[in-house]
Amino acid sequence: MQPTTVFYILIAIIIISFLIDKILDVLNTKHFDDKIPEKLADVYDKEEYKKSQEYKKTNANFSNITSTFSIVLTIGFFFFDGFKYVDNFVRSFTNHPILVALIFFGVILIGSDILTTPFSYYKTFVIEEKFGFNKSTKTTFWLDKLKGWFMTIVLGGTILSLIILFYEFAGKDFWIYAWILVAFFSLFINMFYAKLIVPLFNKQTPLEDGELKRAIEKYAKKVGFTINNIFVIDGSKRSTKANAYFSGFGSQKRITLFDTLINDLETEEIVAVLAHEVGHYKRKHIIFNITTSILLTGLTLYILSIFINTPVLSEALGVSIPSFHIGLIAFGILYSPISEITGLFMNYMSRKFEYQADNYAKETFAAKPLITSLKKLSKNSLSNLTPHPAYVFMHYSHPTLSERVKNLEK
Question: I need a labelling partner for 161 at 20 to 30 A (CA). Which of 9, 130, 223, 393 fits?
Fold first, then answer.
């Protein structure tokens, strides 16, 4: 296949993906003014619903601007040989394959981040501020940005360096070593994310003794769930939106509650939310997700090993010297349709698991407090209660609130 043909295939994939997203966005936007389902009539009053509609429309308009800017920038970078110029610039300093790749991706990622930072700044300090969600300060915003760069450089740079090192000495069999590395890293991060990564951005404190802790411990004992680590995270540092999550496994498993969740919900409702999270653990959803992710990563790396050594991938992006990092970019775009399909499968399974976790909470605790907690959380985040089914199918990892309530009331 000629480099020019591959180039236009890459452009076609990017544009088609963009158009599909825009069509789904338009379909979803047309449902913003739909009547709220009867089962959710108590979520918003008239004024609150009007506010939620305005929030959805504001975000939809902003998304159109940012996505259009992104695709114009991307297409322009392709047609004006941006990859070639960056590659030549990096090679003027060094020809070491690992250093070339690290500096190349560093220039691309930091340059992209600088161009898109004004949008994230506007989103945080104008849109989220206008609707009463933002609690972040400008200092926190910029510190988060610097910490994010630090994490990308340290973790991303280390993994990329090792993968290229494997490629240098193992050739097309590099994917086996890379797969072992990524699998180990995935398991390690899943176990120690809360201890190593979260503290860089948030403060975590053990849940204090009191009614809530006693209620949680009582429920945990009832279902035979050993939990010694219940933490409260200062989510209110950045936003009024609430959340709770389960992380780790074995002796490292812990439950983390946002302080906003504790402020927004009653004790019984918080226990119901935790019962849902325990349901994920008891139904082995976490193990399934990790295992599936590792298997899909292995498949991706294997296919990458077949194509990465093909000079046409680098030539398609205007780079005369075949290299791992240029081939990786071209392959990433070519593989994206497959990635979309696997993403749809994972979203489908995730929605199925949410029902199972809801059912577990209903069977071992109660349905009503989980329903009221879901409604409160949706109300407080001005969630869309009437999304288009196609948009849900493509993008939602959770069933809609209406579907979850219907399932819990069975």
Answer: 9
